[in-house]
Every structure is written in structure tokens, then in C-alpha cells.
């Protein structure tokens, strides 16, 4: 049936390359549910899993949806891809995305936009930048998918397409073979139809990788919260700073309804303040482009990247400019300019340095509200014990539902950046966060939105990935 859906939904443009139908058929015909391997972990027998096109695979091109990588095939598989295959999974293909992960609607792609079908004939945003992965899962073209999440790129598409999207704590999943966007924020994330399937994949991938210098070493891993839950009753923090005026009423209702249902089940609710939230988005859009401008410098048509046509023998400056001017799309060029500016001598103090300070404040906000201490910090830095502490935070994933593609086209870049207000703080702090689809309430249900859901986000302390995944199951 995955195969049937792959041809039935080809027009959604979720995939940029696919496994041969015969391979998929031979492998997945006998597909069983996940079962336990010898070491007790779930194995992914013949499950078709789609891979975002910025994660290297030797059997498929890896373009990161960029013209500059249009002809690139990696000589090796990324660690995460290798681990999935070792566990028995089949790579279903590579998924469409915003170029190099820069975007929120999967429309900035060399391969054309990802299109979510809605209300008979309306095309809507699948979210970005892992929109292809999310839509591939939502339309059952694969069992699950890998994406990457730098500032929300797994969680936002999960919310818009109605699937589960998990961004693990920074440094847990290997980034070896993952094309860098902003190294200090980049994580590999997982999309699936349930928290259980996402967790099965997480368990396979959550390993130290000596090839990735930012992979968390075993000595630190052993200090992380390993238990799913301390007690049946979870202390849920409600970040009041996320109740912004532009929050769509349908989203606010879903948030309130979810909180009520959890309270009725015996969990306790605690309003908390995260005052640096307001400035987190601006800080992110200074830091991420700064790192990107540096990462993308190597694509010049000499060291990396497809050279522009007909310019051999021209001076280097012309060769670089033509290659980069033609190879990068407009949004990527905008980010390079932004990043190069904020790192320049006249701007670094007012932009980059300030943004780093805001990032620190965002991290401190989170450490103040969580009951568990951040295992990466010294005991002494723990905040005052007077305030009420929580186990998880619960808030919307995005301020609105998926916009139509025509609305997206009419947006200016700043409006597109606004979609990330609720996802960026956990990225700046490196925290685990998951988006779970919650059905739209009866009274909000019109003929138009009846199939749709709202993405609700659960954020945990650094290393509390199991708690976040476990708690997500309560929302299903
Ligand atoms: N929309 C955000 C950006 O464009 C997030 C992207 C991501 O997480 N890769 O930077």
C-alpha cells in the first residue's frame, strides 16, 4: 500500500527521489510490526522510512533541495541512515525540503514546492523545512521519516500535516553525513504516525558517534534522565508568554482543551513565565543565518557544488559569483547576506553578540522552571528553589493552522519567520520537544476543517527525551 500511495500522491511533490518499486515490494511485502531484537530494542523489519534530502545516502542523490547540489551523490551513508538500515529498515526515498533547511513551508526548493492537498482542490503548506518528510508520512507513502530540526523544521511540518514530529535533545543523534545549516542548533528529528513508532526509531539512533564531534559522549549520556517517568502524575508547565495575541482561536482552544483533559487525568497544571521568549525568535534569525553563511562558504564550484555553465577559464571571482548566484535560491542568498552582515566588524557587537546573550537567557528561563536540573550544568548554577517546578512544558507548536500556498506566496519573509516563535526557544536551549496532533474540537469544526488537527508541543529538560516521548502518548 505504501507503493500505491507513492504513485497516487506523486503530485504532492513530497519525494525528490524514490526507491525502485520492485525493491520496496520485495522488502515490504512481508512487513511486520516492530518486534523486539535480541538486545530487547525494537527492530524495524522492512519498514519503509523516508529520508530528508539533506541527509547523505549513497544510493540516492543528496541535493538538500539546492541547485548547487543538483548533481551530488554522497560516497557514504549518514550514520543515522546506516543505523536504520542495520535495524532492518528500507530507505523509501529522499524527501523534498526548503533549500538547506531554510524555510517554514517547503516552498524554497530547487525541485518545486511541496503541496499539501486540502478541501478538494486547495493547496496548502506542509510546513518546513521537513515538509516532504511530514507529508510523506501523512499520506502513508512510508512508515516514518527522518527530518532535521534547527529551529522547528520537524515540529512545524508535523503540526501542519497532522503527524507526530520529535526533535531530540541536541547532540543525541549523530549529525555525521547531515548537511549543516547551523551547527549549534541542527538536530536530526523523527516523523511518524504515533509517539510509539517515533520512539522505536529514536531508540535505534540514540547512540554516541565518534565521527560527529558534537555527539554527546558516553560519560555525559550516563548522567541523563533515563527513566520515562518518576510518578503517574506529571507537573505540566503552561508558559504564559506563549499566549500571544496573534494565536489563532482554534489553536488556543485546542491548547486549553488538552490541558483540561490532562488535568482530569490527574496531572497538575502550573502557569510559568519564560520572559526571554519574546526575543528568542529575533536571536534565532541572527544566529542561524550567521552559522549558515559560514557553512555555505564552501559551495563555490571549485571545492564543492555544481559549477555554473560556460564559465571555465574566467577569473575565480566571476566563477564563484556566477556559481553561487545561480546555484543558491533567493531565500538562501538572503540568509547568507544576513549572516555575513551580522558577523561583520561593524555589526557583530550589536547583532551576533547580543543574540548569543539572548540565547543564554532563553536557556536560563528553561532551567528555572524545570524540576530536573540541566545535566550539562554544575550543581551550583541551579535556580532558586522557591518557585514551582515542572516536569514538562505544554504549548502550541505553531500560532496558526497551515496557510494555503497562495497565502504563503503573499507573505513577506518576516511573516514566514513568525511561524517559528514557539519552536525556536527549545532549539536555542537544545531541549527535546515533540509535536503531537490533537483533533480540532467539535465547536471549532466546520465543514472545511473537520479533518484537521492542531499541533501541541511538549518540551522537556535536556536529556529527558524518554519522558517527553512517554508523555506524548497521553495526548494520542
Ligand atoms: N524555519 C526555520 C528557518 O528557516 C527553521 C528551519 C529548520 O529548523 N531547519 O531557519
From TrEMBL:
Gene3D superfamilies annotated for this entry?
Answer: Amidase signature (AS) domain
Keywords on record: ATP-binding, Ligase, Mitochondrion, Nucleotide-binding, Protein biosynthesis
Give all residue intervals belonging to the Amidase domain. 12-469
GO MF terms here are: ATP binding; glutaminyl-tRNA synthase (glutamine-hydrolyzing) activity
The organism sits in which domain of life?
A: Eukaryota
Reactions mediated catalytically: L-glutamyl-tRNA(Gln) + L-glutamine + ATP + H2O = L-glutaminyl-tRNA(Gln) + L-glutamate + ADP + phosphate + H(+)
The entry's function note states: Allows the formation of correctly charged Gln-tRNA(Gln) through the transamidation of misacylated Glu-tRNA(Gln) in the mitochondria. The reaction takes place in the presence of glutamine and ATP through an activated gamma-phospho-Glu-tRNA(Gln).
| Subunit (UniProt) | Subunit of the heterotrimeric GatCAB amidotransferase (AdT) complex, composed of A, B and C subunits.
Q: Which family does it belong to?
A: Belongs to the amidase family. GatA subfamily.
Protein name in UniProt: Glutamyl-tRNA(Gln) amidotransferase subunit A, mitochondrial
Its lineage opens with: Eukaryota, Fungi, Dikarya, Ascomycota, Pezizomycotina
Amino acid at each position: 500500500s505504501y507503493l500505491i500511495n507513492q504513485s497516487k500522491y506523486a503530485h504532492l511533490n513530497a519525494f525528490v527521489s524514490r526507491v525502485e518499486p520492485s525493491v520496496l515490494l520485495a522488502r515490504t511485502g512481508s512487513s511486520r510490526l516492530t518486534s523486539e531484537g535480541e538486545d530487547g530494542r525494537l527492530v524495524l523489519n522492512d519498514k519503509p522510512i523516508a529520508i530528508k534530502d539533506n541527509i547523505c545516502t549513497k544510493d540516492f542523490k543528496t541535493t538538500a533541495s539546492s541547485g548547487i547540489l543538483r548533481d551530488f551523490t554522497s560516497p557514504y551513508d549518514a550514520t543515522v541512515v546506516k543505523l536504520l538500515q542495520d535495524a532492518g529498515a528500507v530507505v523509501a526515498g529522499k524527501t523534498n525540503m526548503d533549500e538547506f533547511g531554510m524555510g517554514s513551508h517547503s516552498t524554497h526548493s530547487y525541485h518545486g514546492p511541496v503541496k499539501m492537498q486540502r478541501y478538494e482542490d486547495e493547496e496548502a503548506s506542509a510546513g518546513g523545512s521537513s515538509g516532504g518528510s511530514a507529508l510523506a508520512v501523512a499520506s502513508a507513502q512510508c512508515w516514518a521519516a527522518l527530518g532535521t530540526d534547527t529551529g522547528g523544521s520537524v515540529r512545524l511540518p508535523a503540526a501542519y500535516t497532522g503527524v507526530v514530529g520529535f526533535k531530540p535533545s541536541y547532540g543525541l543523534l549523530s549529525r555525521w553525513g547531515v548537511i549543516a545549516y547551523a551547527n549549534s542548533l541542527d538536530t536530526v528529528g523523527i516523523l511518524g504516525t504515533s509517539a510509539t513508532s517515533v520512539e522505536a526509531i529514536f531508540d535505534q539512533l540514540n547512540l554516541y558517534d565518534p565521527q560527529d564531534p558534537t555527539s554527546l559522549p558516553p560519560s555525559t549520556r550516563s548522567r541523563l534522565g533515563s527513566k520515562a517517568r518518576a510518578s503517574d502524575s506529571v507537573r505540566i508547565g503552561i508558559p504564559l508568554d506563549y499566549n500571544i495575541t496573534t494565536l489563532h482561536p482554534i489553536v488556543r482552544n485546542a491548547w486549553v482543551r488538552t490541558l483540561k483533559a490532562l488535568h482530569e487525568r490527574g496531572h497538575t497544571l502550573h502557569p510559568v513565565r519564560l520572559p526571554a521568549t519574546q526575543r528568542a525568535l529575533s536571536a534565532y534569525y541572527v544566529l542561524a543565518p550567521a552559522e549558515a553563511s559560514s557553512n555555505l562558504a564552501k559551495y563555490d564550484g571549485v571545492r564543492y557544488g555544481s559549477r555554473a555553465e560556460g564559465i571555465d577559464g574566467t577569473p575565480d571571482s566571476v566563477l564563484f559569483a556566477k556559481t553561487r548566484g545561480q546555484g543558491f535560491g533567493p531565500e538562501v542568498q538572503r540568509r547568507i547576506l544576513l549572516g555575513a552582515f551580522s558577523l561583520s566588524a561593524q555589526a557583530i557587537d550589536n547583532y551576533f553578540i547580543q543574540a548569543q546573550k539572548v540565547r543564554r537567557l532563553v536557556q536560563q528561563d528553561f532551567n528555572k522552571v524545570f524540576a530536573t536540573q540541566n545535566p550539562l550544568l554544575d550543581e551550583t548554577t541551579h535556580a532558586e528553589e522557591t518557585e514551582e517546578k515542572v516536569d514538562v512544558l505544554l504549548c502550541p507548536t505553531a500560532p496558526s493552522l497551515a496557510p494555503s500556498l497562495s497565502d504563503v506566496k503573499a507573505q513577506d519573509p518576516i511573516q514566514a519567520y513568525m511561524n517559528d516563535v514557539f519552536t525556536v526557544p527549545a532549539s536555542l536551549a537544545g531541549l527535546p520537544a515533540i509535536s503531537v496532533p490533537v483533533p480540532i474540537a467539535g465547536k471549532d469544526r466546520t465543514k472545511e476543517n473537520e479533518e484537521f488537527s492542531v499541533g501541541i508541543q511538549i518540551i522537556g529538560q535536556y536529556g529527558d527525551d524518554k519522558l517527553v516521548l512517554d508523555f506524548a502518548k497521553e495526548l494520542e
